[in-house]
Amino acid sequence: MSQSLAAAGTAAVPAAEVVLTGDLARPARLTVAALLAWPQHRTRVSFECATSGVQRHTFTGPLLHDVLAAAGPVFDPARRKDRLRFLIAVRGADGHHALLSWAEIDPDFGRAPVLLAATIDDTPLDHAGPQLVLPQDRCGARHISGIEAIRVDGGYPATSGSW
């Protein structure tokens, strides 16, 4: 294949996007380039992968909390604990899913430094899409590659009656 055809082939690959949906005031579509504009956090992780053993990588990207907070989750501002009923569902292009609670990533509660990684081992993830990285997890099951969608769901209302 000629260099011009090879260059045209790589230029035609669109940048991956992550769709932020759900109970948000400002749903969004974000690319890796957009994620690189956020304050970056770098972390080295080691986790066990069921199919390929222990993995060690360095990831860089913004905190999931910061990105989702900017999208405006529709918490009741008069009730500090209202955000505790919100869940975050993450889906990768390969169908892999993970579920987190808002409390896990919230600085007032669990403060888990969960990343939306824009690079892995200093390689940008522009075309593959960002990765969900949970440095605190020993098992890699919640590390999601090629994130397509993140849904914030507050559909678990606090009720005074029974469920």
Describe the structure in your own words.
The strands form three sheets. The protein has a five-stranded mixed beta sheet. By secondary structure, it is of the alpha+beta class. It starts with a helix and ends in a 10-residue tail after the last strand. Helix content is 15%, strand content 34%. The chain has helices at residues 3-11, 32-36, 64-70, 102-105; strands at 17-22, 28-31, 41-49, 53-61, 87-92, 97-101, 115-117, 119-120, 123-124, 131-133, 147-153. It contains four helices and eleven strands; from the N terminus they run H-E-E-H-E-E-H-E-E-H-E-E-E-E-E.
Please describe the biggest sheet, giving its number of strands, its sense, and whether it closes into a barrel. 5 strands, mixed
The helicity comes to 10-25%
- β-strand percent reads 25-35%
Q: What's the number of helices?
A: 4
Q: Any idea what the radius of gyration is?
A: 17 Å
Order of helices and strands: HEEHEEHEEHEEEEE
Oligomer: single chain
Q: Which SSEs are present, and which pair or pack?
A:
Elements: H1 3-11, E1 17-22, E2 28-31, H2 32-36, E3 41-49, E4 53-61, H3 64-70, E5 87-92, E6 97-101, H4 102-105, E7 115-117, E8 119-120, E9 123-124, E10 131-133, E11 147-153
Parallel strand pairs: 1-11
Antiparallel strand pairs: 1-2, 3-4, 4-8, 5-6, 5-11, 7-10, 8-9
